[in-house]
Amino acid sequence: MPAELTFAAPRRAKPPRHLADLSPQERAETVRDLGEKPFRAKQLAKHYFGGFESDTEQMTDLPADSREALGEALLPTLLTPVRHVTTDNGMTRKTLWKAFDGVMFESVLMRYPDRVTLCISSQAGCGMNCPFCATGQAGLTRNLSTGEIVDQVVASARDLARGDVAGGPGRISNIVFMGMGEPLANYKRVLQTVRRMTDPVPEGMGISQRGVTVSTVGLVPAINKLIDEKMQVRLAISLHAPDDELRDELVPVNTRWKVDEVLEAAWRYAGTTGRRVSIEYALIKDINDQAWRADMLGELLKGHLVHVNLIPLNPTPGSKWTASRPEDEAEFVRRLKSHGVPVTIRDTRGQEIDGACGQLAAAED
């Protein structure tokens, strides 16, 4: 990360090394160090990324007397599901994961008629301190490893492929980094995860880059780095206010990179990739949902390659922050459309299962 980004997580024991943490060359070297032929690494990767299998005892193309050692070296258990909670007739499933050191984080699988979207976490907790966000209330525990982020995807893909999710067997088509944490504050591992998910099998899972969305509150130096990657992932900016005065309160990192700076970086990203930027905007009753703020937002965004995703706030227990009135939400949409800005209201799945990221983990404390 650039030197000016100082959102370091506390020093803790490292997660076990995993195949997903390593490049294909590093996997081959690890296998060679065990006295095995380097091609065994590709076999392991094909099972893991292509078949979603983590148990080497099920990999019958590996020598029986080598499976345990290969599993311990490259496919250790990283995540344990604490519980699954479902709603929408099972079409939405939230999973609370426990890592090797006891930290907890969440992912949400959402099944739609035309796609399956998985929302994943990149950190345990979050250091951005946004006051209306459940994860922000807990603070940052640590960054997740590449393996821990990827394993959320592989484990969910395995359950989906085996028909353990309502709707029958299926495949994940879309990945959004909108779970716990600020993805661009864990830049290296998030980018490695994107590579693992989008590289072809057996190097990765073979998911299209265009199906991946990386969200950020606006870490401008990291957005600039992402531009240089020349990838086709979608960038989502968690804006939540069009004016610096309010955004300083709602998104404290705005005191370092103001609205204009963040949007300028977003337009550079759109110009380089040709991909529409998503503006995430949580509508909060009497805080940021005024019609005049909709007009201000419309003026900032009109004429750009952009789409606004309005999010009815999913309130957390005891919070003063709550969702906008329906009539205020409708007027906000109308005002944005009057400026020619495309806008949709996010599907509010998961409210009855503590859908706001961080709520399940907080309930376990």
From TrEMBL:
Q: Which cofactor does it need?
A: [4Fe-4S] cluster
Gene3D superfamilies attached here?
A: 1.10.150.530, Aldolase class I
Q: What is its EC number?
A: 2.1.1.192
- GO CC field: cytoplasm
The record, for InterPro entries, names: Aldolase_TIM, Methyltransferase_A, RlmN_N, RNA_MTrfase_RlmN, rRNA_lsu_MTrfase_RlmN/Cfr, rSAM, rSAM_sf
The catalytic activity, as recorded, is:
adenosine(2503) in 23S rRNA + 2 reduced [2Fe-2S]-[ferredoxin] + 2 S-adenosyl-L-methionine = 2-methyladenosine(2503) in 23S rRNA + 5'-deoxyadenosine + L-methionine + 2 oxidized [2Fe-2S]-[ferredoxin] + S-adenosyl-L-homocysteine; adenosine(37) in tRNA + 2 reduced [2Fe-2S]-[ferredoxin] + 2 S-adenosyl-L-methionine = 2-methyladenosine(37) in tRNA + 5'-deoxyadenosine + L-methionine + 2 oxidized [2Fe-2S]-[ferredoxin] + S-adenosyl-L-homocysteine
Residue positions of the active site: E106, C357
Q: In which compartments does the protein localize?
A: Cytoplasm
| Top-level enzyme category | transferase
Q: Where is the composition biased (Basic and acidic residues)?
A: 18-30
List the Gene Ontology MF annotations in alphabetical order.
Answer: 4 iron, 4 sulfur cluster binding; metal ion binding; rRNA (adenine(2503)-C2-)-methyltransferase activity; rRNA binding; tRNA (adenine(37)-C2)-methyltransferase activity; tRNA binding
Task: Share any extra remarks.
Answer: Reaction proceeds by a ping-pong mechanism involving intermediate methylation of a conserved cysteine residue.
Name-wise, this protein is Probable dual-specificity RNA methyltransferase RlmN
Q: Which organism is it from?
A: Nocardiopsis kunsanensis
The major lineage groups are: Bacteria, Bacillati, Actinomycetota, Actinomycetes, Streptosporangiales
Q: Which gene encodes it?
A: rlmN
